[in-house]
Amino acid sequence: MSGQTYIEVWDRCLKIIRDNLADQAYKTWFAPIKAIALEDSVLTVEVPSDFFREYIEENYLSLLSSVLRREIGPKANLIYNVRIIEGVTVKEKPQKRDKYTNVEIASPEDGARYEGSAYLIPGLRKLNIDPQLNPIYSFDNFVEGECNRLGRAAGISIAANPGKSTFNPLFLYGGSGLGKTHLAQAIGIAIKEKFPDKVVLYVSANLFQSQYMAAACSAKSNNNSNKIADFLRFYQLIDVLIIDDVHEFADKKGTQGVFFHIFNYLHQSGKQLVLTSDKPPVDLQGLEQRLLSRFKWGLSVELLPPSYETRLAILKAKSEREGVVITDDVLEYIARKVKSNIRELEGTLFSLIANATFTKKTITLELAQELINKIVADRPVEISVNRIQSTVCNYFGITNDQFLSKTRKREIVQARQIAMYLSRNMTKTSLASIGSQLGGKDHATVLHACNTVSDLIDTDRSFRQFVTDIEKQLVSSN
Known about the structure:
Layout: H1 6-19, H2 23-29, E1 34-39, E2 42-47, H3 50-59, H4 61-72, E3 77-82, E4 88-90, E5 113-114, E6 127-128, H5 149-160, E7 170-173, H6 180-194, E8 200-204, H7 205-222, H8 226-236, E9 240-244, H9 253-268, E10 272-277, H10 289-295, E11 299-302, H11 308-321, H12 328-337, H13 342-359, H14 365-375, H15 385-396, H16 400-404, H17 410-426, H18 431-437, H19 443-459, H20 461-476
Parallel strand pairs: 2-3, 7-10, 7-11, 8-9, 9-10
Antiparallel strand pairs: 1-2, 4-5, 4-6
């Protein structure tokens, strides 16, 4: 490696990566990366965003690691330099005063480019900014299933008329890897396609927090409140604001305060907000009540773990997009074995493709079994509300339709109450979400059911045996 420049080393890495990826995947994820330094065995590259870095690490880490070790050596290491915000281009002449912050406006020449401010030039009415949307996360690439149907329908409705529907904000919540980011970005992409002039921005809560802290620190050190005003005005000019992982604002009072004002301004101005979180608003801790109440103004949608049919459809779509022919028996095997979330499902598929590519093996059922046994063989399957419902129905010999009906027959009511009790004790799902999934019941109904079951367990031996049997089935099948 002696005498070779970082550009030469990275070019060789890219050549190998390109040979192992579909053209579109290569152009989207690796062509934009630039090498900027190589010291000893450490290669530094520049990537467009933190999201970009996370996606590469989640989906192409195995391939990237193998290539780097081959070109640099066994001690190869990679450092990312994230290019978060670039300059913005002035499109219109500024107004005299911002009506929301009442801060005096500068008068830059129309069309001038600014590199100094991380946010905006005061008073701009429109910004030409990168929305930070990944084209791969479109509705075309979003596989619909029972787990996400409501969220997708709401997203399409919003994209057709952003800010004008009752779905504002749209609050998407669910466990890690269930497609919240994909769906949120798909909404942004669809809006930009239909309304090119709208200013759309996707930003993680962590990045929003970092931007605010940078502005606050700069304002404090330079005794210049305009930094905070610039930050506020930048976000007030967004037409569609997508904040990912909003639960990360917990216990950050300053960030919550500034986001509260931004939220109010955008909502009152008819702008669209899309928020994602790992929990529903009712279960979020460390957030101010005034924010939580606003999160509930629109529509809250939970994304659930995908069913077998949805997992199989996702695998088929992904393999086709990667340009790799994989037989149905292999895809069906992966869909049966990897159940927890979509991210792990896709990661397993990409690992299988990379393994076959580097070892020059054909992708067979045997190869898939060998790989998956190393990844998920000893990992218990997460117990879900849907799985508990199915187990309870099978135990009592009733159908799903009967279970979800409004009948007051004692055996049906009892089965629902047991399912609610077990869902509360064996999952991390909120009471409101449990009620929604188990017959459209409210929070209070679920709490009453749990108390009833708890009392019967203490006083009725036969009933206690029912609950014990079902618990054993859920644990043993895990």
